[in-house]
Amino acid sequence: METPWPLTSADVDDVMTIGGLSVADLANEHGTPLWVVDESDLRDRCKRYRTAFPDVDVAYASKAWCVTGLLQIAAEEGLWIDVASGGELQTAVNAGVSMDRVVFHGNNKSEDELRMAADLRVGRIAVDGFAELDRLERIGIDLGHTFAVWLRITPGIDAHTHEYVRTGHDDSKFGFTLSLGFADEAMEYSLDLPHVDVVGAHAHIGSQIFGTDPFIANAEVMVGLLAHWRARFDVTLTELNLGGGMGIRYTHEDHPVAVARYGEAVLAAVQRACDEYKFPMPRLAVEPGRAIVAPSTVTLYRVGVVKRLPGLRTYVSVDGGMSDNIRPALYGAEHEVRLAGRASTAALEPFTIVGKHCESGDLIRERVSLPGDLVPGDLLAVAATGAYTESMASNYNRLPRPAAVLVKAGEVRPLIRRETYADVVARDIPLA
Ligand code: LLP
Predict the structure, then answer these.
(1) How close is the Cα of 424 to the center of ligand 1, in Å?
(2) What percentage of the chain exceeds 90 in pLDDT?
(3) For the domain with range 10-31+296-425, which CATH number is right: 1.10.540.10, 2.40.37.10, 2.10.109.10, 3.90.1230.10?
(4) What is the pLDDT of residues 304-317, one digit of tens each?
(5) How far is the CA of 2 from the centre of ligand 1 (A)?
(6) Atom 19 of ligand 1, residue of closest alpha carbon
(7) Which of 120, 229, 289, 364 has its CA 20 to 30 A from that of 202?
(8) Shortest-distance atom of ligand 1 to CA 209
(9) E strands in 162-296
């Protein structure tokens, strides 16, 4: 069974290795906290997605981790890039991504962002609302550009995941709500906009979803909608993007569906629905973020303090925290944690791993079993931190943000340099 650790992780002489490199050496050389990305793992997941979804455009949802080097790898592996802001789009430009393989998302894209997308000839815009349709038409007239768009639909599917990462249910800020008739209204409205060419539909129902049922339901609803539009408006759209959201294993308690099964289930569901409605098979797209990048990466932290509270618990403070991984504090997320820099035969004890920020919610993992002889100076590795950690990082308490390195077959390539105190104050404007 797949573990929460990256593909090439191993133990050599009692020290964890990734890409053939000792994490103790990596920590000594590059400092901590440190994101270590296993390049083989990352490329393997890109390939597995492409194999599981043959003839489907797989877009990497770059919000999961948007860094130039990672987008270069995703593009090299044949993935499209999904961006959700001008900054993410600029990163795709920086990575030399072919703009016709970029999809632009967002529930409130600004005029400037849409102009940037037009200037760059971004491949697809996932339109989120009526105000955006008007904005696109205006910009299109101004620049003499016609946008190829997908209408983002809120399909009324509740994916039963964390409230903050559900997007398919009706009460959502995203998309045209199907049950309220907004999807039809948007389609009809677009037909009168010469600079907005609706070529398909999009629906993303949420994130960290474990079963295949919500994805199957999404596929059925969306093909049904395309068939309905054909009947009602006499338009046969040729593209359908079913979003991302496939869950991954953060700890041994998580049991996600293998990508191959997920692909089979979704493709079969689309085919069935197309047969049922006698609708021509659209060109499909999916846009995984977490499942591409999260499992490739571990965060290395150095233990600074072990505080034993008899009868209560033992706190272990590390040198990062909620500024480099907000997920435990924000979603109650759990990541596997291990002692990484040495072996220990000590009996396991429960420890609560916390960060160094000035608040009690600054948690890495509550009550995790680790060897009882944990001491300051030890290295801890936290699993599956490639998604929504660096991308949601902050400078809270003015901590410089960590570095990230890519490792493969004994070689290290830097992805992000560590921030300095000079960086931390760089945007401050001292009063004259
Ligand atoms: N497509 C759209 C339109 C999205 O909004 C998202 C994620 C994705 C694709 C990719 O979903 P994924 O495959 O990564 O699940 N910060 C949260 C997750 C937020 C997801 C936002 N949208 C977390 O750390 O769990």
Answers:
(1) 28
(2) 96
(3) 2.40.37.10
(4) 999 999 999 999 99
(5) 22
(6) 165
(7) 120
(8) 15
(9) 176-177, 196-202, 239-241, 283-286
